[in-house]
Design goal:
Oligomer: single chain
Largest sheet: 8 strands, antiparallel
Structural class: alpha+beta
Number of strands: 20
Strand content: 15-25%
Number of helices: 16
Radius of gyration: 25 Å
Distance between the termini: 10 Å
Amino acid sequence: MNLHSKKDFQDCMLSILEPLKPYYSEEKARLTLGVTMAHYDIGATWMEAFSRPLWGLVPFWAGGGKEPEFEEIYRKGLTAGTDEKNPEYWGECTSFDQRFVEMAAISYGIMFAPQVVWDPLTEEQKVNLCNYLNKINEHPLPVCNWILFAVLVNIAMKKVGRRYSPEMLEEYLEGLETFYLGEGWYQDGDSGQKDYYISFAIHFYSLIYAVIMEKDDPERAKKYKARAMEFAKQFIYWFDEEGEAIPFGRSLTYRFSQVSFFSVCLLAGLEPFPVPVMKGLIARHLRTWLKRPIFDRDHVLTIGYGYPNLTMAERYNAPGSPYWGMKVFAFLLLPDDHPFWSVEEAPLPKLAPACPQKYADLFVYHYGNHTTAFAPGVYSPNGHGQIVAKYGKFAYDTRFSISVAKSCYELHENAPDNMLAFWIDGYVYVRRICEESKITENGVWSKWSPYPGITVETTITPDAGGHTRVHKITSEIDCVAYDCGFAVSRGDFEEVGFAEKVDGMSAQASNEFCSCTVSAVLDENTQVNEVADKPPVGYMITVDPNTNLLYTKTKIPAVKYHIRKGSQEIVTRVDAVSYTHLRAHETDSYL
């Protein structure tokens, strides 16, 4: 896909949204894209699907783009959705309501594209819209990135001279300061999580605030911009040379929003890296995603990651949720003469291989054609879905991706890539959360317990070829544990030349694109009679289909260890190689 000129990127954005037009309701306030459900009510589901395309349309309109049909859809839909007398009214708001999330995109439109979403409305329609948005000031919000939805609503109302709450605005801005950690990193409120929500939510909204409120609140605007510049120095490590991003944390179904931080930097006039570097990263990232089967037969975005996949979804993923990814198009707001539209793409800057990110609770190693984040597993399950897989694995890689579990009963259903999986009484137990952890200059250390009576201290040390794991295990029972490597595609719609080899204390899975070898390491102090009765052995797990986020069918190489009652140390070497940028599932374009 050609992504160079402003028109190229505008056409790309519209090509993603154009297929939605047949699915808007008569009054345009409802967009029905599927029959699966999230935990919130149908009114919020309709509002979500309606609102999220605005993340792409607003900067398109603000940057001079014209699309009369969408303009009419959104003027009509905003009018109907906020009119209590209209049958397509979005419904009343309650505490912690999903509708508050979707108010952010509407506020984005009022601030940056008022000529489409605000100015054409009648006075009555404006009053209805303002009254509806102000409901966010009347109910409690979760203590997380949600407080910034209220910030956007209030500054939008302030900009157009309407009723807003200065008190709530100040309270939430002060609350944001309690999230800040250092080196540009925030935590996502009381969850403590550090993931893409720091980039595509907290920094994204902070920079919008900095742009809109620069004259009214210059100190905060300056601070938010400085933090974004500092954050960029570490966040660039979350991408490899081809624009692939590390699949870490929740909301991965938002896909290309992973790079939207750099898009909003451009909107805010920030250049943490030269414009050609930022253009190259954004363009490569988009091309990578648009080559994957992430759309259904009607070209509507699906819930999933590399392909449609409900197993990996959170409880708040409704059919319209993936259109949060339209945040990537924030740069469409740039004027026609901005250098972004004329410069040639540049590769990533030269990066040192290792990047300890203590405030992110990660150690990221940049191998070039793939990037791996090593994690201690510090976030407790919170009911969103697959949190253990999304935060608790030893490693997260741009090319190998991660797998999610279907059950805890069988290894092949659990798909425990990059985990030390204990097999006890017919169940699989893995690291859910660590008790202690630290990010060092050389790697990651964590202390955790998979099962009552078993304690593990894991030290992970990355290097140029892969990484070494040292597990110090104290157990009150005899059991079996599998130290697992990366999942490797064994082919699906295309032949990938898959091969496997299990030999002694090692196992290897490989294809034309990548290879992973997992081996037990016996140091010179290990006595032969200590392992002679039940030595470690290589093992290959053929996991259930649709467990890996990028590849529909995979195998996981592992080493099987017999864990004795008492204390012992096991050492495992994981060598992971990416040979080429070609990926299974790629075509010229799925659009």
